[in-house]
Design brief:
This protein is mainly alpha-helical. 76% of the residues lie in helices and 1% in strands. Strands 1-2 form a two-stranded antiparallel ribbon.
Length: 327
């Protein structure tokens, strides 16, 4: 187990280095941040002085080595646009993105598993057919269009929920949350549904497919022959074995929710990290863009590592296979 963990950590470090190289190389040659920072009246000499101060005239290997050394200390420099430390900007907006991703993930997982089990156990009913048909909306429609439709129905026509912003937040010192206020919770509903609908559909269809396959297995037939109730067979045996691949997909989808929340945050003007990244792209704010990609890569790597360890702990066949290889 320890060797497996160390090997996965080493692989994660290599992935982070590759992502850092790609991100830094990409943004190093995209646009000129000096042109964004200064006006047309600035002389060429003043531009060159600013480039020297920002380290833009240093050789590429030196710039990359300096970037890695500072990134290892969670120091991504100063934002060209806002003239503030990048980590302060990200940490100030990270709670909004994480809360949105967490609520969306819980929404997708709970309803995805529930509807997946229901449609598998009642696959010939008209309700299951209707659910499977409606679920195509979550796959076929773009995220921004779903968000716009929800705004039109629930914010414009019915006026039940707010259409933008995070609502009132509570400052806990180390965290700013909207979950403790009515307006904060109301503001979270539409973006959470928009962001989680696609993942809900994937989880539901995966659970349904896995559940149908497990219900045809021999050990389920033996369990029924032993006289176990349908509840025991479905939830104690079938669902337990169904959840192994579901955990893997759910973990990876949580990373996707965080990474691809940019569109949802833009539609609902959600003050998260994604909106910060979009504004940084417009102004060629290289430190913020590079830090964002590094953060997303780190989230994916950590989630993937946790999922692999959970998969290793839940599925005894992996431990048996590795023991057999050693012997």
């Amino acid at each position: 187990m320890l060797a497996y963990i160390l090997r996965r950590i080493l692989q994660s470090v290599i992935v982070m280095l590759v992502v850092a190289l790609v991100a830094f190389s990409l943004f190093r040659f995209v646009g000129d941040p000096v042109s964004t920072l200064v006006g047309q009246e600035v002389t060429i000499a003043e531009r060159e002085t600013l480039r020297d101060q920002l380290g833009l005239n240093d050789p590429f290997p030196m710039q990359f080595a300096s970037f890695i050394a500072r990134a290892a200390q969670a120091d991504f420099g100063i934002s060209y646009r806002l003239q503030q430390p990048v980590m302060e900007l990200i940490l100030a907006r990270l709670p909004a993105t994480l809360e949105l991703a967490l609520v969306s993930g819980l929404f997708a997982f709970f309803f995805g598993v529930t509807l997946g089990v229901y449609t598998a156990l009642n696959r010939r009913g008209w309700t299951s057919s209707a659910i499977m048909t409606v679920s195509l909306i979550g796959v076929s429609l773009p995220t921004f269009l779903i968000g716009v439709l929800l705004i039109w129905v629930f914010a414009v026509e019915l006026q039940w929920l707010p259409s933008f912003g995070r609502g009132e937040v509570v400052d806990l010192g180390w965290w700013r949350t909207g979950l403790l206020t009515p307006s904060g919770r109301a503001s979270l509903v539409l973006p959470a549904i928009t962001l989680g609908l696609y993942q809900l559909t994937l989880i539901m269809r995966l659970v349904r497919a896995e559940m149908l396959e497990v219900l045809r297995a021999d050990y389920i037939k033996f369990a029924r022959a032993r006289g176990l109730s349908n509840r025991a067979v479905h939830f104690s045996h079938a669902l337990k074995n169904t959840m192994v691949p579901v955990i893997t997909i759910t973990g990876l989808q949580l990373g996707s929710i965080i990474a691809f929340s940019i569109i949802t945050e833009t539609v609902f003007q959600w003050p998260g990290v994604g909106a910060l990244f979009i504004n940084s792209v417009r102004t060629v704010d290289v430190p913020v863009m590079a830090a964002y990609l590094m953060l997303i890569a780190l989230i994916f790597v950590v989630i993937n590592l946790i999922v692999d360890l959970l998969y290793f702990a839940i599925d005894p066949r992996l431990r048996i296979d590795r023991s057999a290889v050693r012997h």
